[in-house]
Amino acid sequence: MPEFRELLRGYQRGATxxxxxxxxxxxxxxxxRPPIVRLQVYGHELQTRDSVVEWLEGSLLTAxxxxxxxxxxxxxxxxxxxxxxxxxxxxxxxxxxxxRILMWGIxxxxxxxxxxxxx
Length: 119
Known about the structure:
Elements: H1 20-29, E1 36-46, H2 51-57, H3 62-67, H4 70-87, E2 94-104
């Protein structure tokens, strides 16, 4: 939202996670065999699409709240709510989905102890 760019000093929250395949490669390089990585989609039933903003206030929007004065953040929320209304269908209840990447693996020693290894 361009009207808040100056107040936020250009801050925009970027992507904070890698793609699942990148996590699998990383785990493999770190010695996890087999690296198991999956994308899980969760959902939460909200009363309306407007409730998405309240849901995000406790996570995604906290970085913006820390950077704005209280009155400016209230204006930011109103603008964010209007932007979301243009992008989300007006279904009731509104089913809000969000992705989580789940990872698992077992890390074994890179070298197996042999008869010459003193433990």
